[in-house]
Structures are given as C-alpha cells and as structure tokens.
Automatic annotation (TrEMBL):
UniProt entry tagged with the keyword RNA-binding: yes
Residues involved in Mg(2+) binding: D487, D493
Protein name stated in the entry: Polyribonucleotide nucleotidyltransferase
PROSITE patterns named among the record's database cross-references: KH_TYPE_1 (PS50084), S1 (PS50126)
GO cellular component, one term: cytosol
Known function: Involved in mRNA degradation. Catalyzes the phosphorolysis of single-stranded polyribonucleotides processively in the 3'- to 5'-direction.
SMART domains to which the protein is assigned, alphabetical: KH (SM00322), S1 (SM00316)
Gene that encodes the chain: pnp
Species whose genome carries this gene: Mobilisporobacter senegalensis
EC number assigned by the record: 2.7.7.8
Reported cofactor(s): Mg(2+)
Length: 697
C-alpha cells in the first residue's frame, strides 16, 4: 500500500514515499528532499552465502546524468564506471549501517541508491544516506536501526544545517554525522583548520538534529515496517571453540600475539592453526572449516582482554604511546618532490608532481559547482606492503577512500592559484602497512609538498586512535596510534588530521552501536596531543618550511595578463598561432577567459621568449617600435616579415636598403632574420616596416 510521509528538515521538505515503486525489493523508499529525488532499496538473499566468515554487504550509489539534464560523453553515451564521488558516498553510507546488522548474518545484502533528480541545494548524498536507513528499517532484513545523518557547514563561525550549494561554497566546514537513537555512529569531515572545541560542538549539534529525523523514521517503520525474517546463525560451534581454548590455552594465545613484529605474530598463529588441523583431522574433520573463524575469535577475545583488563598492548606500548617515527625527504632524485614517513611497520613514500593548470582534473558529475580539481592525491596499496601476493587491478574503494581523505586533509593549507599557478598531484605509495597508512600518507605528503617547494600555509599531520569497550559505556580504553591487530580486534578507528591551528579532516569507523560524547571528546583531544608531537618532534626537524625554489626538474610557470579581447589573437584560427609559439619555444601555455596566461617550461629563456611573443601579439603597434622577424614572403614590391606567430608586416622595396636596389632578392632571401622598425599602417591597413632605418647588426 502506497503511503507518503513528510517532515521539515533544515528549511526544506523531506518526503518519503513507501509502496510507490520497487515493490519487489525487501524495502524501498522513494526519497524527495526539495527537488532532489533518490530511490533507495534494500534487498537480501534468501540463504547465507556458503564458505564465508564475513557479512557480505554491498552499498551502491548510482549517479545518472539525466538527474542534472546532461547526456554522458563518450562513444556509448551512457554512464560508465562509478565516479570517485559515487565510491566515496557508498563508503559513507556503508560505515554507519554495517555495524547494525547481526554479526553472524551471512546473507548477501545490497543497499542501492539511484539518484534520479538533483536540486543543487538539497544534497543527493544526504538523501541517499537517509534513504538507505529507511529502506533497511522498513524491510524484513535484520537491522538494529534506524540511523539518521546530517551535514554541517560553518559560515563566519556559525553552524549551518544541511547547507545549500551557495552555503557550501562559503563554508569552512564540511561535516557529516550519522547517529542512532543514543549515540554517534559515524563522522566524516573536511575543515579549514577548525579548533577541536568547535568541531565537537558541530558534531553534537548534528547529533541532536538526527534524533528528530529518527523520530520521523520510527513513525514510518511503525506504519510500514515488515517483521524481521529469521536467518541461519553462522557462528563458530561452541564445542569447537571450547576445545580450542582448552587445547591451546589463553596463556599460549597471549604469548603468540604479544609481540611488536607482525610477521612473528602471523607465524605464531599459523603454527596454532597447523596444530589444530592435525588434531581435528583425526578427532573431528567436520570442525576443520571452522578453524580460521574460531582462532580469529580466540585472538580477538585475548587481545581485548589484555587491553581492557590488563592494560597491556600487544606490542608492549603504553595506551597513549606512538610507535617509533621517522621522516625523510628527497628519496627520489629526479621527481619534483618526495617525502617518506615511517611509523613502526607503517611506511609511506609520497611523490609530488607539478604541472600547468591545463592539467587540472575535469569532473563530470552531478555537482555543478565543482567542475575541476587542481590538487589530486592518489593512494596505492600494493600487496607486498603486507607481505602478500596479489596482482594489481587498479585502485579499489579502499584506495580511493584513503586518497580522498588525505586530499581533504591537505586542501586547506594549499596556496591559491594566484600564489602558485600549478596543478599539483601527490601519489602515496605504501611501502609497508601495519595500521593507519592513510594518516601516514598525510604526513608523507606534507613532507613531499614542502620538499617540492609548494608554499603550503602550515604542516599537516594525521594520527589514528582506537577503542576497546567493555559491557558498560564507562568501561573503555582509548589507544593512540593503533596497529593492524588493534584495528582488527578493536571497536574504532578514529582518524584525525590537522595543523597546529586546528582540524582539517576526520574519518571515524566503528564496529559497535555508537560512541558517547565522552569517548568522542577524549579521542579528538588525544589525536591533538599526538599530532602536535609528530609535527614538532618528527616532521619539523626534517623540513621546517617549504623550499623557496622548485626542483630543477619541475616546470617553471610564469603568469601574465592580457586584454581578454586579445585572446583570439594569441590562439589564432584553429589554434594556429598558439601552437606555433609552443612549437618554437617548447613551452606549455594556458589561457583563461579573464585573460590570465600561464607559460610553463623547464628553460627560463624559452619561457621569456614565448612571453615576449605573446606581448608582441597583444600590443597595439606604434610607430617607432623595433622588432626582429623572419622573411616569409618576397614580392616584386617588397618583403613580408613575420615578427611573431601569426603577425607580419611589409617592408617596401624602397625601405629595405639605404642604397637603391632593383630587386628584393638582391638583399633578402626567404628565412632571413632581420630587424625592422614600425612605420605605422599603410593605405591597405597592413603594418609597414623599414629595414634601412634600423641598425641590422
């Protein structure tokens, strides 16, 4: 039965239609926020997927260009692979939803969000987050929701809820907060060095609004919700688990995992599994397929008990202690900049490349306000970084997400185009991984940018803190600089990046049903302490400020301004003039509609030569100006001299030499380089030159 529900949300109407479309999905919500329309569906398989030990959740966010009245480019004229924004949005939807499904649920679940119409003032990303939560909550899929999400901006120090397109452009904060009825379950932020106390205020202002949205969703569930279906519980057999604990013993498991060397720990666990396989091959072969999951569960309980009750970390560190740190620059001699950051067994090498503004990345998506990206950060996570073998198939969702997080963290400190007229690309290559490579890539990128001579405003560092919780809200331990094991078996990965001045990026992943305000505040202030230490004690001694000169291998870019009305003269018919300048000088030239011209090249003389050509082309000619040009045509009455690409003037035969000559060829041949002085324009409007009135030496 078709039902419609509405509420006012941040000054706009949110409407949810249930039963109007997609009736065969387990749950479907036809979402309208202003004129933005998103269809959110939740579907689940009837049976669990065999042979897996994880919950197979798939989240999709599909951008259709018809939503903004565009036809896709390319030969096929249809949407291709998911855009970066689609991938990032899918991850943001996934993170608050995943912890609320049963931990032993193995049925395939797909949350699909089809963006069908976009009102630029009503975020389709936010609409999809709400839609996924509603579609799942009203479905028969087991789910401990609902959740709600709010986006926050900040303009002139004042918070803005679910900002419009114009408000986003003026905002110093882009924060998304998802909540359950009691707690915050997801935080994602990009900020222009926002102080910690203001960030906390914004987080909980969003959390408060989320409670009103959850009340609205509860009403929908009360009227339209289906009973949750029963499912096959895919947990480790209790008899098997008890036997493993008795056979291996908690003391032996603690000894196996209590080491700061990842390889030693993995070898110890392999030995335990080998013993168990040998034991159950004779004793109970049916238990062999469950060994991996049972050992994982045993490890997890051991590590959590060590941390929470014994206050011992697997590598022996204190709860707030950071692993050994190192910073280096100039690792690669011919790149424009390089920096390497090492934290324990996590090591990241970032390479900076500078280019002309024409190399800015073009974006063809639903957001009409953002059409290009001048700074690009890419993150690569090869299998060798964790001692595994796997062919490279390009970046996955995790790599795209980590790259975007580092990019978001660094954008606030980058110089403007006017200050530094370059496109900038940083690539973080993960050399070794054992926890929080995304934050290591932020530190390495800062080092690399400074080594490349990019005049960033301040250094940026990132750090991650973890969490292990007990049975009550006040029973918990916060861990600074979590390694992989603490991430796998812990409850939180809270990543915060920033400068001395404030926060530039946050990403929070958790595995439990939310965090209290006390935990969030302590986590944020713990990251500030660690960040300050990294900036002052590790990064600053390596390089304290950006270099004043670029690498000899980096392009040199010089800017000039011309009259916008003269742009056509510089470009020429079908680009003939500008291409001739480029061919003669070897430079790159970018021209914007306002008359800003960027000339780039490795050789300073070539840049100056190209700029001089542009000056000549765009200058109104005056009598008495002297030029150097090439003879390009000889006639009976004189010669034509090209003094800049696409620009030529005529030297009459009487103006070639102080001596009387009968034929132009007596003095000139094609290709001669000569000096000429401007005499003005002749009766036909052509520029008239004289050679005899200027010294040819």
């Amino acid at each position: 039965m078709y039902k419609s529900f509405s509420m006012e949300l941040a000054g706009r109407t949110l409407t949810v239609d249930v039963g109007r479309v997609a009736a065969q999905a387990n749950g479907a919500a036809f979402m309208h926020y202003g004129d933005t329309v998103v269809l959110s569906t939740a579907t689940a398989s009837e049976k669990p997927r065999e042979g897996i030990d994880f919950f197979p959740l798939s989240v999709e966010y599909e951008e259709k260009l018809y939503a903004v009245g565009k036809i896709p480019g390319g030969f096929n004229k249809r949407e291709g692979k998911a855009s970066e924004n689609s991938v990032l949005t899918s991850r943001v939807i996934d993170r608050p939803m995943r912890p609320l499904f049963p931990k032993d649920y193995r049925n395939d679940v797909t949350l699909n969000n089809l963006v069908m119409c976009v009102d630029q003032d009503c975020s389709p990303e936010l609409t999809a987050m709400l839609g996924s939560a509603i579609a799942t909550a009203i479905s028969d899929i087991p789910f401990d929701g609902p959740t709600a999400a709010t986006m926050m901006g900040m303009i002139d120090g004042k918070l803005v809820f679910n900002p419009t397109s114009a408000e986003k452009a003026a905002s110093t904060l882009a924060l998304t907060v998802a909540s359950t009825k009691e707690k915050v379950i997801m935080i994602e932020a990009g900020a222009n060095e926002i102080p910690e106390d203001q960030m906390i205020e914004a987080i909980f202002a969003a959390h408060e609004l989320n409670q009103k949205v959850i009340e609205f969703i509860d009403k929908i569930v009360a009227e339209c919700g289906k009973p949750k279906h029963e499912y096959i519980h895919c947990d480790t057999p209790q008899d098997l688990y008890d036997d493993i604990v008795n056979f291996i013993t908690p003391e032996a498991m603690e000894e196996a995992v209590f080491t700061d060397e990842k390889q030693i720990r993995e070898a110890n666990i392999r030995e335990i599994k080998n013993k168990l396989e040998a034991r159950y091959a004779e004793m109970n072969p049916d238990w062999i397929p469950f060994i991996d999951e049972a050992v994982y569960k045993f490890q997890k309980k051991t590590v959590r008990k060590m941390i929470l009750k014994d206050h011992k970390r697997p590598d022996g560190r204190d709860m707030a202690q950071i692993r050994s740190l190192a910073a280096e620059i100039d690792i690669l001699p011919r790149t424009h900049g390089s920096g390497m950051f090492t934290r324990g067994q996590t090591q990241v090498l970032t390479i900076t490349t500078l280019g002309g503004l024409s190399e800015t990345q073009r974006l063809d998506g639903l957001d009409e306000a953002e059409t290009g990206k001048r700074y690009m950060h890419h993150y690569n996570f090869p299998s060798y970084s964790v001692g595994e073998t796997k062919p490279s198939r390009g970046p996955g969702r995790r790599e795209i997400g980590h790259g975007a997080l580092a990019e978001r963290a660094l954008v606030p400190v980058l110089p403007t185009e006017e200050e530094f007229p370059y496109a900038i690309r940083t690539v973080s290559e993960i050399m070794e991984s054992n926890g929080s490579t995304s934050q290591g890539s932020i530190c390495a990128s800062t080092l690399s940018l400074m080594a490349a001579g990019v005049p960033i405003k301040r250094m940026v560092a990132g750090i991650s803190v973890g969490l292990v919780t007990g049975d009550t809200d006040d029973d918990y331990i916060i861990l600074t600089d979590i390694q992989g094991l603490e991430d796998f078996f812990g409850d939180m990965d809270f990543k915060v990046a920033g400068t001395h001045k404030g926060i530039t990026a946050i990403q929070m992943d958790i595995k439990i049903h939310g965090l209290t305000r006390e935990i969030i505040e302590k986590a944020i202030y713990r990251t500030k302490e660690a960040r300050t230490y990294i900036l002052d004690e590790v990064m600053a001694p390596c390089i304290s400020e950006p270099r004043t000169e670029l690498s000899q291998f980096a392009p040199k870019i010089v800017q000039m301004s011309i009259d916008p009305a003269k742009i056509g003269d510089v470009v020429g018919q079908r680009g003939k003039t500008i291409n001739a300048i480029i061919e003669q000088t070897g430079v790159k030239i970018d021209i914007t509609d306002d008359g800003s011209v960027s000339v780039g090249g490795v050789d300073a003389d070539s840049i100056e030569k190209a700029m001089n050509m542009i000056r000549i082309i765009t200058t109104d000619f005056e009598e008495g100006q002297v030029f150097t040009g090439k003879v390009i045509s000889i006639k009976e009455f004189g010669a034509f001299v090209e003094f800049a690409p696409g620009k030529e003037g005529m030297v009459h035969i009487s103006k070639i030499s102080k001596e009387r000559i009968n034929h132009v060829e007596d003095v000139l041949t094609l290709g001669d380089i000569v000096k000429v002085v401007c005499l003005g324009k002749d009766k036909m409007g052509r520029i008239s030159f004289s050679m005899k009135d200027v010294n040819q030496d």
